[in-house]
């Protein structure tokens, strides 16, 4: 199943600069129709036409899941990245048309939880904004612990604290404030689920602490979309389609296949969902696995995740 | 087309009948002359005009009578409809999906008028005209899942998705092929499929689960499943086996064509947007063998499939004892001619039965 098939044509209705790094984009359906409802934690893949290049970047939806009139995403400007976020910040304006992928949720609330303990770092706040709106509608106990570099960069902190003064806690790096993780994870009622979204280091910290404190793995949830990393160009033979393609320095293997018209399934484009998993038929060189989908024993040269992983060597043959 | 609804029963005097129209559009499940398990999923994006695949939720001539039968099953056994507390949001999702689909697909039969959270639902065949508040359970006579599935043909398993698995946490199950919601409630995908023979060894369920976990919003999927049922019984439940199991012993060479039915399930899968749950509608279609063999291709093929089916499957599907009698009957309709590939009746191109 090629998940990219279902798309929503939208128009940019608002572009709001929140601070030096983060800008919010709001969208309405291009033909005025209702947008599909979604679940808190869902993302959409934003399709941007940058000249001849099609950019596809996933962003968490952070509008009210119950509001069919608009979607919103918040984009952190990543000057060192491959250009998608900079393109959005600099080029996309109110009135522009874009295509969005249907919402896909890889970071859903576990609705059996008695309480949701949310831990956010920086731009990782966005899925929680939608989840909190969902819980406001359906009821459900939650507590948010949100860490940011400074008050100015703490996007949405004021709104969230105003709406939920007793449930939202903010920690600022420049004030030397740190989330009291050990205490938080030690003092939760049974049935609590913990969710973390933020930089890699924070996710690792929360996962490791939860494991050490004996949290059941099914009660610990994390989401991190990896951006594809740049690397040396490489050539790939595609056995099914009979094509030989070259993956550029700043391009992912998935993007190179799409550029050459090879149908490759995807959902998250960030190494998390497993949808693009591809069988390696032969290789002479080193597979550089950058995903967090494949198990260790699957990183044996038999499989690759084309959305984020690369190759260095003389020959790579894939089952595509 | 305007549907002429039948007034018929699925119990006691069994007045259920398929019209010529219903026979031609029956979802015959065998695309070749043999059968083995497979993850035979395809996208549920419509189908040929008039076929059961065309609409998201097919409505046919049995609608009113099936809903009457469901109400009676529920009156006798309320546990056929259950929803664990965390599944209410999924119930609203399902209500919305069905109301939107039916009002768009059958505007002459169903209407949905939405003004913010105030919704008016008109179901003309069942004579319902209700105004309620979306997401407010107190504004409906039943919970949202029960309300809408009392008005929709087919069983509904509503599956929560967590821990990379699916959980049978809600459902409306009154037309089932011998499984019990009350027994399966709260089980995960592997637990509720444990009784199925052979398929586990074949890795079918692992592949099927992986597929289902990736069914996304706006991209529903479908497959067919089948079994055999004596008499046109919708409710072949384990709870009532003492009532219907014995009917399998009443088959005779004289009545087999009339009493023995092929039972086909059109199973569809939709991602539910607000809850991220998955709904699994299981729609049951019944056809008497004597009606099925009026399509020459289907008569030939069903004989070959039933004849060559592995013993484990004939046992699991509950007709191993009657298989010889069924085969005696069907063999009259198999003249050995080749059949065309695919499930469609192909009445214009397939040769008539050679006697």
Secondary-structure blueprint:
The complex is a heterodimer of chains A (320) and B (355).
Chain A (H helix, E strand, L loop, with lengths): L6 E11 L4 E8 L12 E9 L2 E8 L10 E6 L7 H8 L5 E5 L2 E2 L9 E7 L4 H13 L2 E8 L8 H7 L4 E5 L8 H6 L5 E6 L2 H13 L7 E4 L10 E5 L4 E5 L5 H7 L18 E11 L14 E2 L5 E9 L2
Parallel strand pairs in A: 8-9, 8-11, 9-10, 11-12, 13-17
Antiparallel strand pairs in A: 1-2, 1-6, 2-5, 3-4, 3-6, 3-7, 13-14, 15-16, 15-17
Chain B lengths: L19 H5 L17 E2 L19 H14 L4 E3 L4 H18 L4 E6 L2 E6 L4 E6 L10 H6 L5 E8 L2 E8 L8 H4 L4 H4 L11 H10 L7 E10 L10 H4 L11 H4 E12 L6 E11 H4 L3 H13 L2 H6 L6 H9 L24
Antiparallel strand pairs in B: 1-8, 2-7, 3-4, 4-5, 6-7, 6-10, 8-9, 9-10
Q: Could you describe the 3D structure shown?
A:
With 320 residues, chain A is α/β, with parallel strands linked by helices. Chain A has three domains: 103 residues, Elongation Factor Tu (Ef-tu), domain 3, CATH 2.40.30.10; 109 residues, Nucleotide-binding domain of ferredoxin-NADP reductase (FNR) module (Rossmann fold, 3-Layer(aba) Sandwich), CATH 3.40.50.80; 85 residues, Ubiquitin-like (UB roll) (Roll). Chain A is 17% helix and 35% strand. Chain A is built from six helices and 17 strands. The model of chain A has no long low-confidence stretch (mean pLDDT 92). Chain B has one domain. In chain B, a hairpin with a 2-residue loop joins β6 and β7. At the A-B interface, β7 and α2 of A face α3 and β6 of B. Chain A: Its cofactor is FMN. Chain A: This is Phthalate 4,5-dioxygenase oxygenase reductase subunit. Chain A: GO terms for molecular function: 2 iron, 2 sulfur cluster binding; metal ion binding; phthalate 4,5-dioxygenase activity. Chain A: InterPro entries: 2Fe-2S_ferredoxin-like_sf, 2Fe-2S_ferredoxin-type, 2Fe2S_fd_BS, Beta-grasp_dom_sf, DmmA-like_N, FAD-bd_FR_type, FNR_nucleotide-bd, MRET.
